């Protein structure tokens, strides 16, 4: 489990031009240090929509240091570190753009994205930072302040790490964790705990020799849990439907391309309920 990392967040004036940066460093899973600065983006145009979100105007930053002038202070939080951001693709792009703009060397670091991890590990109607903070009960007092968002991102990363660890245990040993984090999450989402426990504790070769593809969101399980159920019962899960796929398990908002491919390939399309019936779980 990654416990040493730096969560960071840029707010931008327009495009990839940063007007503030917040970074929170964690060591051993605890907040260790932080960095926050307003940044003069050296552009005249501030997107009104962006200003409405973060509240930073041209007048607020016109006398602040630019990215290059602040870079020496930023380096200790970035060089050789594990960086975490919510929608990291955007924040990494802002960082790269700023380095290239001022002719600065690209530091060495690894990157993780809490948005991508949350979509993989948790089934929720919204994956906005504020929505995830609310679900995981992370206090958030000033949304779209770069330092506050970096802190919330860091706390979410730790919680998602815990989810991932329990999912690994679940895949290896089934589910027998009366006070597990996964059960807590399931209850918050209104899932049927008894059905979950029966399905996740079921080990056998019921699906041996069969290939599955899963798509959409399910009522009682995350996509990863659905995959675990199939694998621990001898089945194989692949990402794409092909002529050798036996079952496409569909939840809400299943991919239309996968549905069309399954129909043309003669793959049997089943629901979460159908899968549970095959397992004789109800």
From TrEMBL:
GO terms for molecular function: exonuclease activity. Residues 202-282 form the BRCT domain. Keywords: Exonuclease, Hydrolase, Nuclease. It comes from the Bacteria. CDD domains: DNA_pol_III_epsilon_like. PROSITE patterns: BRCT. Pfam families: BRCT (PF00533), RNase_T (PF00929). This is Exonuclease domain-containing protein.
